[in-house]
Design a protein that fits this description.
mainly alpha; membrane; MAL
Length: 162
């Protein structure tokens, strides 16, 4: 009599990515959220005006949207724990490079944004939006600088462990 086979077991899990509930309470998570919110305010405030007449504000929009999209991608990667599932990518080095680059780009962007405020008439919609976006650009620069510091510390710790 042939041996009785048991039915195959199937993995019923619906997702291979896990949601890290505590990531948003860490300093890294909070800084990423602050970068997303303040960066979004920069490009929304500039985008709501006739910014395309000034090349400096076109640069502001380019940097703000680019950094915003990259930061959202990085946030999702850390939030879902994908960085733990793809160990081939040097995440600490990638994060360090992204944050340092974003800090430098946003510093130039914030200065260009602040200088562009003088091109608008005081008290008008464009003036108010550009002044507010300049403030948030400097705030975003500080957030990226903080993330750069945390990324540097994490990179240094991984370097020392090797």
């Amino acid at each position: 009599m042939p041996a009785r086979r048991s039915p195959p077991e199937y993995n019923i899990s619906t997702s291979t990515l896990a949601f890290d509930q505590h990531f948003t309470t860490t300093a890294k998570g909070l800084l990423l959220l602050a970068e997303i919110v303040s960066g979004m305010l920069v490009w929304i405030l500039v985008g709501g005006t006739d910014y395309f007449h000034l090349s400096a504000l076109c640069w502001v929009m380019f940097v703000a949207v680019l950094c915003w999209v990259l930061t959202i991608c990085l946030f999702i990667i850390y939030l879902t724990g994908a960085h733990n599932r793809i160990p081939q990518v040097p995440w600490t080095m990638l994060s360090l490079c992204l944050n340092c680059s974003a800090t430098a780009l946003y510093l130039v962007t914030a200065v260009a944004d602040a200088i562009s405020v003088n091109q608008a008439i005081r008290g008008r919609h464009s003036y108010n939006c550009w002044a507010a976006s300049s403030f948030f650009a400097f705030l975003t620069t500080l957030c990226y600088a903080g993330s750069s510091y945390l990324s540097y510390c994490a990179w240094k710790n991984t370097k020392e462990e090797q």
